[in-house]
Amino acid sequence: MAKRMIVMLILTGALVAGLGFVKFRQFQAAAGQAAAFQPPPEAVTTIVAVKETWPASLNAIGTIAPVQGVTVSADLPGTVYRIAFDSGRAVNEGDVLVELDTRQEQAQLAAAEAERDLARLNFARMQDLVSDGAIARADYDRAAAEQKQTEARVGEIRATIARKTIRAPFAGILGIRQVNLGQYLSPGNPVAPLQSLHPIYVNFGVPQQETPNMRLGRTVRVTVGDAADKGFAGVITAVDSIVNEATRNVQVQATLPNRDGRLRPGMFVQAEVVLSANRSLITIPGSSISYAPYGDSVYVVSDLKGPDGRTYRGVRQQFVKRGASRGDQVAIVSGVNLGDEVVTSGVFKLRNGAAVLVNNKVRPGNNPAPKPEDS
User: Fold this and answer.
1) 200 forms bridges with which residues in the sheet?
2) What is the pTM for the complete model shown?
3) Which overall architecture, per CATH, does domain 75-100+165-188 show?
């Protein structure tokens, strides 16, 4: 009985060992196949890195500001008697915008002028009497003072009437009217915004290290949105004397002609400061760059060797340092050499060493001044 048990155990152990060996060989074969597996190549488009001539410039985000801009408001309290302007109209300096009710002041002015005339007559009589010694010098001085007081009173009332006539402080374009006929205005109540639009300012910030390049008279090109072909040209007229502690930028102000009034205060614009002569740069489409917190990179197509020693067309990831951008193009300061074949689409699905299949029938845009159909 014991012998039979021992034989059964030996046979069972041999069977288990044989099965284990077979499975081990199967796992080895599967691992070898997995190691030798090469995923199918990814379809991509490419472009050969070339040098292009770009003007040496500095790009910044700017905001349009008026040379002169105020909200015209009431100086004294009163009721709106007449409105002499329309919203959005151009006005000249001194044009009447609003007249407040001055009937009470006009009556006071008539009374003050009558008192002034009487004081003048009395003073004239006093001059004859004091020269004859008929009156005391003190009476003469009192008459002179009364005449001056009445003159001052007339001038005060006239000034009040003038202040209740609201005029344009300078030539410009009016905004939306904010008063109505018969409305009571308190001091400081707005009447309408007034902006001087020609010329006009553009304010933008530049890094503190670029301050020496911001010279007065240097040319600035301004574009609105994607309308690169409809830009405006101006010159730098002021550079701030301090650096913003939060951004470490310096504010620069340029002045531009704006005869047709296309630029309006508050508009968001792109400002380009022309620094010097043209320069040659390596450029690639912006779609080629894989942006990441640890660094920007591109994929360069080249001949690579696989684990089996065979050569295939694959990509290597190359970290780059970006420069300025212009339209669809981005200048590369370092990381890409002249003649490198760079992937321009499909970068999101690539990894270092991945096999690729180049198909350049349809390529992404690479225009320095694109004109989108919907813009």
Assistant:
1) 66, 256
2) 0.54
3) Beta Barrel (2.40)
